[in-house]
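Homework help board

Subject: predicted structure for assignment chain

Our instructor gave us this sequence and asked us to write out the predicted structure in token form, then describe one feature. I got the tokens but I'm not sure how to describe them. Can anyone check?
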Amino acid sequence: MVVHVVATNRKARHDYDVLETVEAGLVLSGTEVKSLRSGQCSLQESFAMLREGEATLRGMHIAPYQQGSIHNVDPDRDRRLLLHRQEIVRLGSKLQEQGLTLVPLRLYFDRGLAKVELGLAKGRKSYDKRRKLREDDERRRTQEALERHRRGQSV
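My token output:
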């Protein structure tokens, strides 16, 4: 399977605890696809919402295609997500009950189709973010020490 990643939302994993991921298709116009293939996309400050049985992605910016003319669309428009009805119902109940949110984690092309990986996430407090950074740093240092020990080098 060939997957071409266009954009990732690295800040999402810092700001949220991702509990579950879901893959959704993305409804795009022709010039948006061409712009995405050249990597002109930003997932910062974007989120998905469920309303009236449909899922939409808000706040994602796709730059207008340079060679496009009147066919270019609004770069910040809401984009429809393609999910199965059962997934929409399941996600909707989790969003209402537990106070979670849907954030896009990455945007990619899979066999020529634009897909977005959504994360069912719970927001972190600032002290949780600092604790997570400390834990990651400690884990990284431990791994480096183990690697040096395996190679026979001293600390």
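Reply (TA_rk): Your tokens look well-formed. For the description, you could write something like this. The beta strands are 3-8, 16-26, 41-42, 47-51, 54-58, 61-62, 79-82, 101-110, 113-123. That's the kind of observation they're looking for.
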